[in-house]
Specification:
The protein is α/β, with parallel strands linked by helices. The chain folds into 4 domains: 52 residues, 2-Layer Sandwich (Phosphorylase Kinase, domain 1), CATH 3.30.200.210; 280 residues, Rossmann fold, CATH 3.40.50.740; 216 residues, Dimethylsulfoxide Reductase, domain 2 (3-Layer(aba) Sandwich); 130 residues, Beta Barrel (Barwin-like endoglucanases), CATH 2.40.40. Helix content is 31%, strand content 17%. The chain contains 26 helices and 28 strands. The strands form 8 sheets. The protein has a 7-stranded mixed sheet with strand order 5-4-19-18-17-6-7, with helices on one face. A 6-stranded mixed barrel has the order 23-27-24-26-25-28. Helix 8 crosses helix 11. The structure holds ligand MGD (2 copies), iron/sulfur cluster (SF4) and molybdenum atom. One ligand MGD binds next to helix 5 and helix 12. The site of one ligand MGD has 33 residues, from helix 5 and helix 12. Its EC number is 1.17.1.9. InterPro entries: Asp_de-COase-like_dom_sf, MoPterin_dinucl-bd_dom, Mopterin_OxRdtase, Mopterin_OxRdtase_4Fe-4S_dom, Prok_Mopterin_Oxidored. It is an enzyme of class 1 (oxidoreductase). One of its GO terms (molecular function) is metal ion binding.
């Protein structure tokens, strides 16, 4: 038994946001365990939550500002680093204009209100359109689809897991990911609960994943989900199984477009028998409380926005939008949508990319275009890059092109916990705080909780070394440049009146003004931040379920009607019918794979997590045989963009023709265990070519990337 004081917090590695209890001695973290009193996770956490202790205490964490000197880094002071960065930014702005600065904010920024809003505020006030991040590798297509259907990217319904009797999962693996765009800790139990109520969970995935194994699996060829969904809609309207319960426009137009998408033609594309498609459509429409839920496997193919659109269109036309057990618009304690809107984070297409004219999605342009924007001369050429909580060398497409482009920057700053595969090339690396070193509330993820829920976590330990929070760094840097890092004019005005704005203060204002708030004393028993932290340190579930019958509030199109057939979608249908461009030189289709004991590219220096992890690319025995390869051998995997040499493992869990490769490996950074763990960087294979980006949201093509498999040339694993 460890001695020390216990503090309550919650895990901010993934979106489940499980409650944790930290043991602290002498202001150092001793251990983490699941919090049995957390209202949602109730004593559950995954191995990563426990292993966060090793990350917190990792001797290889960056704890002091580092400045590049030749090929190495040397320690510097915060004052020295920020002075020099400000000076260089000033001169870059003077010489090249404000668009010369770009920001890449990685996915951990979305776990922190202060982080994302302050870095975005800084970029906007600097005057640059160049926001980038994980959106175009992750959720952009879903947000664009919600804009088309419901008129607002924040109007994204989530599956009502605890009341549904039919969950159709398209391209998600919640038993490993623990749920995404969905905050639902203990998700295994909740899915099992659906079956326990005599319901069904069906997983459409090219791989027999952990989730597919546990429930019903419908294998599908990668990047063909649009065909499946259109054929389901075709059957539903053909057999008059629809039951629209919310106002909608465009239904007759949508129906008139469905004729070519018969189950038979869909069977040819998807590999799913026509009879299975027919049965799935009928069962879904007849289930009463059904919901289709798609995630990264749905939204990152060549038709990502169309697929996301069709998933919610299916929910809508079967009467499952905004009803118990269906797809729900959610209520939050802090008015996230209103605050996001006030901060102007909600817009799509506010700026456009120079190459390809792609719209930004919530302030992010396609990350695939970053390298080109650094290397191509023009008035908005990027000369300085700020990477906050990101590892784009591992996570954005065409890594080699991106690494080369980094070499052309005049200034490259990163704020991170580690020297990772990207910022090892930076001019400055600034030490970031872990979530255990700051106060926090789930802000951007609050809309995805399966019940209205709110929590405020205390600082568990003081920041180690000289780690600082992103919002403080942006404020300090902003002061040097005459910038108040906020997108909200009234907040900037207050700041100039020396009213210090902190994330804590803004969240308190939001909470008190919100639907459960104390309205600044006007509503007895209502919430304020003080009250929340004093009375509910484990978090507070505000009601068992989200209210239904609220769609009109969330649908922003005229007359609160869902738009079922916008012109953008019609165009995509025509493009789908035109058929895929097929390059016979690359006959196999590559998909990415996530593992339970890993998080994206950054938890790979924890001995606890790495002990049992071995990198291996999953290949169907038929495809291996065709390439003359056997189990455990090295193979050469190549695409039009690049090639890697990797060990393969034979597996009939992948469809013939599909290759599944774990992503986030092939490390070269300041994390020695991660470096030693081998593997290769998947994004050496993925494309940043304009014609390979999805047209509506600029999504990177990550699902079903054309590749080929051959015997190796060198026999040694290639690194990132
Ligand atoms: N091929 C392929 N590529 C993919 C994907 C895929 O499935 N396949 N998935 C995509 C998806 S869904 C995503 S979200 C992206 C992720 O892409 P990124 O966000 O670029 O990468 P991460 O691996 O999450 O790296 C996060 C970095 O943040 C640091 N960090 C952690 N916490 C904090 C913090 O609180 N503050 C600061 N300042 N730093 C912190 C970590 O040390 C790490 O260096 O990758 C995408 N790329
Ligand atoms: N353990 C763990 N948890 C994580 C992460 C992690 O790295 N590790 N990352 C976090 C992040 S950033 C995110 S965004 C979420 C992602 O959460 P999920 O999307 O639930 O997780 P994935 O494992 O990427 O699941 C995507 C599934 O889509 C399948 N797929 C690929 N292509 C296609 C296709 O064309 N059609 C269909 N139908 N399926 C396809 C893949 O085989 C895979 O099983 O997970 C989060 N949670
Ligand atoms: S599932 Fe694991 S990584 Fe995700 S929040 Fe819970 S403990 Fe953290
Ligand atoms: Mo993600």
């Amino acid at each position: 038994m460890t001695t020390g004081e216990e503090r309550i917090t919650y895990c901010q590695i993934c979106e489940a946001l499980c409650g944790l209890v930290a043991t602290v001695a002498d202001d150092r973290l001793v251990r983490l365990r699941p919090d049995p009193a957390h209202p949602m996770s109730a004593g559950y956490c995954c191995p990563k939550g426990i292993a966060m202790t090793e990350i917190q205490n990792d001797p290889e964490r960056v704890l002091h500002p580092l400045r590049r000197v030749g090929d190495t880094f040397e320690r510097t002071t915060w004052e020295g680093a920020l002075d020099e960065i400000a000076e260089r930014l000033r001169s870059i702005r003077k010489q090249f204009g404000p668009a010369a600065l770009a920001l890449y904010a990685g996915v951990p920024s979305s776990f922190s209100f202060g982080h994302l809003t302050w870095v975005r505020g800084f970029l906007e006030q600097f005057g640059s359109p160049h926001g980038y991040g994980a959106v175009s590798q992750d959720i952009g297509s879903r947000l664009a689809a919600c804009q088309l259907l419901f008129g607002h990217p924040f109007s994204a319904p989530i599956p009502d897991l605890d009341r549904t009797s039919f969950l159709l999962i398209i391209g998600a693996n919640p038993l490993v990911s623990n749920g995404s765009f969905l905050t639902a800790p203990r998700i295994r139990e909740r899915l099992t609960g659906i079956r326990g109520r005599n319901g069904r969970v069906i997983v459409v995935d090219p791989r027999r994943t952990e989730t597919a194994k546990a429930f019903e699996h419908i294998p599908i060829r990668p990047d063909t989900d649009a065909w499946l969904l259109l054929a389901m809609l075709n059957v539903i309207f053909r057999d008059k199984l629809e039951s629209l319960r919310v106002g909608a426009t465009g239904l007759p137009r949508l129906v008139s477009r469905l004729a070519p998408f018969t189950p038979e033609r869909a069977a040819e594309s998807t590999g799913i028998p026509a009879l299975t498609i027919e049965a799935l459509a009928r069962d879904f429409a007849g289930a009463g409380r059904a919901v289709a839920y798609g995630r990264t496997g749905a939204g990152r193919g060549r038709f990502g926005t169309l697929v996301c659109f069709l998933i919610d269109a299916l929910n809508t036309v079967t009467g499952n939008l905004d009803r118990p057990g269906g797809a729900l618009f959610t209520t939050t304690a802090v008015p996230v949508r209103a605050m996001g809107q006030a901060a102007r984070l909600h817009r799509i297409g506010r700026v456009r990319s120079d190459a390809g004219n792609f719209p930004d999605i919530l302030g992010e342009l396609p990350a695939a275009l970053m390298a080109r924007q650094i290397t191509t001369p023009g008035p908005r050429q990027i000369r300085a890059l700020w990477v906050s909580a990101g590892n784009p060398v591992a996570s954005v497409p065409n890594s080699r092109e991106f690494v080369d482009a980094l070499g052309q920057l005049k200034l490259f700053v990163s704020h991170d916990l580690y020297l990772n595969d990207t910022n090892r090339l930076a001019d400055f690396v600034l030490p970031a705080q872990t979530f255990l070193e700051r106060q926090e509330t789930p802000f951007f993820h609050a809309t995805n909780h399966t019940s209205p829920f709110v929590q405020w976590s205390q600082q568990v330990v003081s920041p180690y070394g000289e780690a600082r929070s992103e919002w403080e760094v942006m404020t300090d840097l902003g002061r040097r440049l005459g910038i108040v890092p906020s997108t909200v004019p009234v907040l900037r005005a207050l700041h100039r009146l020396r009213i210090r704005l902190t994330p804590r203060r803004l969240i308190d204002l939001g909470l008190r003004a919100g639907p459960y708030g104390d309205r600044f004393g006007l509503r007895r028993g209502g919430l304020s931040l003080r009250r929340l932290e004093r009375l509910h340190p484990h978090g507070l579930r505000l009601s068992e379920h989200h209210p239904t019958g609220v769609a009109a509030k969330y649908i922003r199109h005229r007359g609160s009607r869902v738009e079922l057939c916008p012109p953008e979608i019609v165009k995509e249908l025509d493009r789908l019918l035109a058929g895929p461009r097929i390059d016979p030189a690359y006959p196999l289709r590559l998909v990415s794979l996530r593992e339970l004991r890993s998080h994206n590219s950054w938890t790979h220096n924890s001995p606890q997590l790495m002990r049992s992890r071995r990198f291996a690319v999953r290949v169907h025995p038929d495809d291996a045989a065709a390439a003359g390869l056997t189990d455990g051998e090295m193979a050469r995997l190549s695409s039009r963009t690049g090639a890697v040499e990797v060990p393969i493992t034979l597996s009939d869990a992948v469809l013939p023709g599909t290759i599944a490769m774990p992503w986030g490996w092939g490390h070269r950074g300041g994390w020695s265990l991660a470096n030693r763990s081998g593997g290769a960087n998947l994004n050496i294979l993925t494309s940043s070519a304009l014609e390979d980006l999805e047209p509506l949201a600029g999504m990177t093509w990550l699902n079903g990337v054309p590749v080929r498999l051959d015997p190796p040339r060198t026999g040694t694993p290639s690194d990132g």
